[in-house]
Design brief:
247 residues, 9 helices, elongated, mainly alpha
């Protein structure tokens, strides 16, 4: 069994804590309603309510296809990354020899190197499952959109109410798909910080904290967040603001 130093254990703990902390802040904390993810959940409901009033829904189908393509791209990226990790495992001797000749002097045992590679593969595997599920949820959303009664076929107020509820249902499924997509991207982002461990545990700590800071800034303090949050809504329309139950 490879011997990890106390600093290695501290670095791994900080890495996992940073990941979990950001997930909690972005998805569960009281301040999540100021994040881009929550604001975009509101925009998704607004989108679907506008879609309900549209006779031709080619634009809406194109948007959903774009979301699916994004999920498919990152899922493929994750699979290729997993393959790259196992390729590195098969070339461990060559890689360790190369690292030992570098001027920065990276020293590690074969067992510890393999554990680091397997940890990286586990991160990409997690991301793959998240991207794969988000792809499927976006497909479900397209089916729900297809089930919304066309505007010209709505004859009664009851039919309009049913169509509105169906549109909200499609928006909720789309939002859940986005939540899983964001979780997959989170894994990809934190994998960049994880790469620092291949050099030293100090770089793993630095990479984890830097990743956390960058993600927090983008979610809560970026120009994109300010632009999306600048729009004005009627807060009496509870359906636009009721996103607390979507997980």
């Amino acid at each position: 069994m490879p011997q990890l130093s106390n600093l290695d254990y501290i670095a791994i703990s900080i890495f996992l804590s940073a990941w979990i902390l950001f997930a909690w802040i972005a998805d569960f904390s009281p301040v999540r309603k100021h994040s881009i993810s929550w604001l975009m959940a509101r925009e998704r409901k607004r989108w679907m309510l506008v879609m309900m009033e549209r006779q031709l829904r080619i634009v809406d189908v194109s948007i959903i296809n774009g979301l699916q393509q994004g999920s498919a791209f990152f899922a493929s990226f994750s699979v290729l990354s997993i393959g790259g990790c196992f390729a590195l495992l098969g070339a461990t001797n060559e890689v360790l020899h190369l690292l030992s000749n570098l001027p920065i002097g990276i020293e590690t045992s074969r067992e510890l190197w393999e554990i680091k590679i397997l940890g990286l593969a586990a991160i990409f595997t997690y991301s793959f499952f998240k991207f794969g599920w988000s792809y499927r949820l976006f497909m479900y959303c397209s089916i729900l959109v297809g089930g919304v009664r066309p505007l010209e076929d709505i004859k009664t107020s009851e039919q309009k109410k049913t169509a509105r509820l169906q549109a909200i249902k499609a928006a909720d499924i789309n939002t859940i798909g986005a939540i899983h997509f964001n979780a997959g991207q989170r894994g990809v982002f934190f994998s960049m910080g994880y790469l620092g461990w291949f050099v030293s545990p100090q770089l793993l700590i630095a990479g984890s904290l830097l990743t956390l800071i960058v993600l927090l800034r983008r979610q809560f303090f970026s120009n994109s967040q300010k632009i999306i949050d600048a729009d004005i809504y009627d807060e009496s329309d509870k359906e636009l603001f009721d996103t607390d139950s979507i997980k």
